Amino acid sequence: MPSSFSLYSWNVNGIRAAQKKGFLNWVRKQEPDILCLQEIKAQESDLTQDLKEIAGYESIWEAGPRKGYGGVAIYTKIKPQQIIKNLGEAILDEEGRVLTVNFDQFTLFNIYFPNGKRSPERLAYKMEFYRRFLNYVKSLKIRNSKLEIIVCGDVNTAHQEIDLARPAENAQISGFLPEERVWIDELLAAGFVDSFRYLHPKEIAYSWWSQRTRARERNVGWRIDYFFVSENLQASLLDAQIHSEIAGSDHCPVSVELQL
């Protein structure tokens, strides 16, 4: 493993759509050491070889049973030690939302967390998913307090008022509900660090914009894409960025650089 390396996370809102908008050229230009994707909206069998086999990368895919919905993927230059596609919790496994990869020095979770806006039932599903995942990572830390963990992906919640353009207007909307925000508090209290906010405590930057209202042009956005690292990786953080200049999705990529 290189002494310093870059990890990127991006909800591409359909990898085949992103491919048509220059995704492969972006990967070749940026050359992240590890790239985590969410909402790929494709089964591995649906993909062209140039998406599955980018030179220099191993690709790992996980999609649920529903065609054209959800799904996550990882491209990595760093050799995985173990790939886990089933955490043994039905709610975490049933929709193809989680990919876990154990590397030599850390464990990486790439997650597309549920969206709760569609209905009260989906909000309840989101909150149960949150609860089960938090319990899962807590159990890992109990079993091995020295384990270094990175959790990245589309969390579908803005944590603080600084993390969305119009907090007052969205205080009763899923994505900024008190119970959703408290879950992020609980994750941090369990020994994790919000990489971007740790390195940029006062910076206003967003990673998602509604496509319905030309919100991106007006920068009326939300920061809902994160890299959380366990506290024993905090000193290794060199950089954390939100790449709002990168188009191709209603989300933009977010990244961290670490030195191990």
Describe, in plain words, how this protein is organized in 3D.
There is one protein chain. The chain has helices at 15-20, 23-30, 49-52, 90-93, 120-143, 178-189, 195-199, 215-218, and strands at residues 4-11, 34-38, 58-62, 72-76, 82-84, 98-102, 107-112, 149-154, 192-194, 208-209, 221-222, 225-230, 237-242, 254-259. It is 26% helix and 26% strand. The protein has 8 helices and 14 strands. With 260 residues, it is an alpha+beta fold. Strand 7 (107-112), helix 5 and strand 8 (149-154) form a beta-alpha-beta unit. Helix 5 packs parallel to helix 6. The protein has a 6-stranded mixed sheet with strand order 3-4-2-1-14-13. It has a 6-stranded mixed sheet with strand order 5-6-7-8-12-9. The chain is globular, with a radius of gyration of 17 Å. The protein has a single domain (4-259), classed as Endonuclease/exonuclease/phosphatase (Deoxyribonuclease I, Chain A, 4-Layer Sandwich), CATH 3.60.10.
Largest sheet: 6 strands, mixed
- CATH architecture heading: 4-Layer Sandwich
Strand order of the largest sheet: 3-4-2-1-14-13
The beta-strand count equals 14
Secondary structure elements and pairings:
Layout: E1 4-11, H1 15-20, H2 23-30, E2 34-38, H3 49-52, E3 58-62, E4 72-76, E5 82-84, H4 90-93, E6 98-102, E7 107-112, H5 120-143, E8 149-154, H6 178-189, E9 192-194, H7 195-199, E10 208-209, H8 215-218, E11 221-222, E12 225-230, E13 237-242, E14 254-259
Parallel strand pairs: 1-2, 7-8
Antiparallel strand pairs: 1-14, 2-4, 3-4, 5-6, 6-7, 8-12, 9-12, 10-11, 13-14
